Amino acid sequence: MTGVKNHFRISRKRIYFLFILFLIAFSLISYRLVSIQYLDASKYREFADYQHIDGFKLDSKRGKILDRNGNELAISLVEKTVYANPQEIEDPGYIADVISDALDISRDELTKKISDKSMGFVYLKRKIGSEEANKIAELNLKGIYIENECKRYYPQKGLAAPIIGFTGTDGNGLYGIELQYESILRGVDGRTEAEKDVFGNIIPENIKTYIEPIDGKDVILTIDSQIQFIAERSLAGVVEEYNACSAIAVVMDTVNGEVLAMASYPGFDANNYLDYDAELYKVAGTSFTYEPGSTFKIVNISTALENGTVAADQVFNLPPSVQVSDRIIKEIFRTGNIQYTTKEIIQHSSNVGAVLVAMGMGDKLYWEGIKKFGFGEVTGIELPGEESGIVHDYKSWPASTIGALAIGQGISVTPLQLLRAVCVIGNDGYLINPTIIKEVSLGKVEDSGSESIGPRRIISKETANSVKDMMLAVVEDGTGTRAQIKDVKICGKTGTAEKVNRNGTGYSEGRSITSFIGFGPYEDPRIAVIVIVDEPRGPDKTVWGGTVAAPVFKEIMEFSLERIKVLK
């Protein structure tokens, strides 16, 4: 009897133990279910989505860059990109053997890329042709994928390349308009999410979300491709003829400031920009700074006339040299005294006459005139990297500075700054603001976010007309006769500036910058052009602004006037 009781007690304990064990197991299972379904539900949902749902970026199409007539300067082509998920690749060596030739990647390099199981995504080759991509697609290799990607293409190759700029591998603008208008050109990428099967393939009928990409807007430039082409061709010719370092030309509408061409040579092909020196990427018309030489006499004389310190018909008795503090400034060709009017000082580009005019104004008036013409500050054109040049405050000028400034030394300017200043003479005394943007997509230029300030008068119409007559005399019977164009009157000014020595002190007699600047027609100025040739080489006394730069100016000006129907 006692044995039965003991057996009963042991059985009951076992039942209690099993019951308690069951309760514990049930509680754990219940807790686990509650944890999975409620407490940690979001975490597991994310993990499940990660395994079964994939998100894909839908690239927006980058907007075009067009010239003023709708010619395409930058467009986007759809290319193929090959990528891999190393976690899905079972035999990296085999995959590398099969596709290394098609991708033009070494087997070892490819094997290394697709063997890293810690990576779920790795680019194999971006932006390849459809033919190569199709060969890989036909192999149907697990873990190897192909997607569409936009590739930037420049149909005109090197035409206006510094202005247009280019994009990097990821499609981001790096230089020029591509950089300046990145947010407008790029657009907004879309996205889609869809379920995938155990092999990672998309299940088309189970697309969960779809956000359509918004394509970028087109940017329309003021550039005329034909004028740009002629300018670039002319610069290439003069650099070759005179074995020069480089050359620059800017063509602008005298009235509204629209830039019709901004050329430089040598240049580069934007489709293969990595093959060229990075210095060529810069827009020379806005980033190249130099001492303008005699072309700056226009600012000197205009300021003096406006302030009444000289008259247009005033006669000067000019010696062959003049001393300004510790510096002696000489005439180039003249050794005796001569009488010149103010007009003839410009016509024959007299250094001594320009110095006497500047000294008659004094430091403060001359400095204020220079600043009014916009020197020492950026023009605000819609291009990255514009330089402001250097204009020192008159309060810090050494005694000889005014003599140097009178002949265009001791100041640093850009080609665009000087062209804008000369447009004041052709535009009845108004300073205009250069622009290179015509429209952004369907909106006008204001939609681009750029601020535009209207023309402002800085000298009187009478002063502008007086200097315009002087510039006409330069071309008709002065230092710029090689800029003459049949049946049209052209106003201009030559410039030949010695370059500062490479050690930063003094000037080099063997290195110079020659230039010519002007506008036409005289009666109703429509086009303004500046041409700069850096370090042309030739026989002594043959390399001047009037001999080197003026013929290039003529070629560009004549074509530009024909292009806008002024000449027939």
Q: Calculate the terminal CA-CA distance, rounded to whole Å.
A: 135 Å
**Overall CATH architecture of the largest domain:** 3-Layer(aba) Sandwich
Percent of residues in helical segments? 25-40%
Shape: elongated
Integer tally of domains: 2
Descriptive terms for the model:
Beta-lactamase; elongated; alpha+beta; 568 residues; five-stranded antiparallel beta sheet; 21 strands; 2 domains; Penicillin-binding protein 2a (Domain 2)
Polypeptide structure, described:
With 568 residues, the chain is α+β, with helices and mostly antiparallel strands. The chain folds into 2 domains: 64-93 and 107-220, Penicillin-binding protein 2a (Domain 2); 225-563, DD-peptidase/beta-lactamase superfamily (Beta-lactamase, 3-Layer(aba) Sandwich), CATH 3.40.710. Helix content is 37%, strand content 23%. The chain contains 18 helices and 21 strands. Strands 2, 3, 4, 5, 8, 16 and 17 form a 7-stranded mixed β-sheet that branches. A 5-stranded antiparallel β-sheet has the order 10-9-21-20-19, sandwiched between helices. A hairpin with a 2-residue loop joins strand 12 and strand 13. Helix 3 packs across helix 4 (107-115), helix 11 packs across helix 14 (363-372) and helix 11 runs antiparallel to helix 17.
Summarize this, please?
This protein is an alpha+beta fold and about 575 residues long. The protein has 18 helices and 21 strands.
SSE diagram, text form:
Blueprint: H1 2-39, H2 41-52, E1 53-58, E2 65-66, E3 72-84, H3 92-103, H4 107-115, E4 122-128, H5 130-139, E5 144-153, H6 161-164, H7 176-180, H8 182-186, E6 190-196, E7 202-211, E8 219-221, H9 225-242, E9 246-253, E10 259-265, H10 284-287, H11 297-307, E11 315-318, E12 321-324, E13 327-330, E14 338-341, H12 342-347, H13 351-361, H14 363-372, H15 401-406, H16 415-426, E15 430-431, E16 437-440, E17 443-444, E18 456-457, H17 461-477, E19 491-500, E20 507-520, E21 527-534, H18 545-563
Parallel strand pairs: 2-8
Antiparallel strand pairs: 1-6, 2-3, 3-4, 3-5, 6-7, 8-16, 9-10, 9-21, 11-14, 12-13, 15-18, 16-17, 19-20, 20-21
Helix pairs in contact: 3-4, 9-18, 11-13, 11-14, 11-17
